[in-house]
Amino acid sequence: MQLPAVGLGTWQGTTSSEARKELKTSIIHALQTGYRVIDTAQYYFVEPTVGEAVRSSGIPRNEITIITKFWGEWHHNPAEALQRSLDALGLDYIDIFLMHWPCAETPDRRALKISESPSFVETWKLMEKCVGDRCKAIGVSNFTQKTLDVLLAETRIVPVVNQIELHAFNPNLKLVPYCQEKGIQVMSWSTMGGGAEYATRATEILTHPLFQGIAANHQCSTGVVSLSWAVQRGICVIPKSSSLARIDENIQLVTLTEAEMTEINRAHVTICKLRIANHIKGLQREMDGRQTILGWTDQDFGWEDAEGNWLT
Question: Where is this site: Lowers pKa of active site Tyr (predicted)?
């Protein structure tokens, strides 16, 4: 399987009829102008719209890579989750099916601790059975060296993709080469600092003089600077936009100099360090009297050690 460097993300943050109409238009436009990867998820509640757009685009299905993800309440039964996505999309197969987070929930959406079953290893072994005509490949999302070490030691199939939060303020300078050494393709979300509604400093990836200066050097937008930085590191990007002009722009990458790459790689030191996931209210769960993300601590995920040092 080969993946283009740039795909289209479909997280909208709303399921209004107007948003669905905008999304369908943006997907059709993206496909007709050269995009060949569409990323979605059950959690986004837009799979029916994605399927409609793919069928209406006029682009042969076998030229498009469709990626979707299942949420924690389906960790006990990913085969049923796969069927639900196929039904929602109205497609015969999914190209890459991802475990959205390593942490599970009960079917009634109660967050489970890292020590509770099903573990992500148990879930992955069930996912391996799904690979076939209806599911071409499987992967993970929001995994780290810690969780991947455990997974790879006990399972048969290596994840084809690890989709992670990755941007200049959370560059994953250790996790990316780790995945590449294991043959896992890194795909980044919030590459341009998306999530500013949760973490206001994320906007600086578009507005800080560092990025503006580099953008001026290449006569492009600061968004394209961030996308180009990630792609030059061997990472696939999936920016989302309802603006057709921005969709056209996002696929036009530039080549950054080694000095510019180094400056961006150090932005988490020189400007700020930020994990957007820690600020998304929809992911917050109280567990044993403290706030967690979907029942797990930063140490459980492998994002930090006990002293708060970042590990990825």
Answer: 69
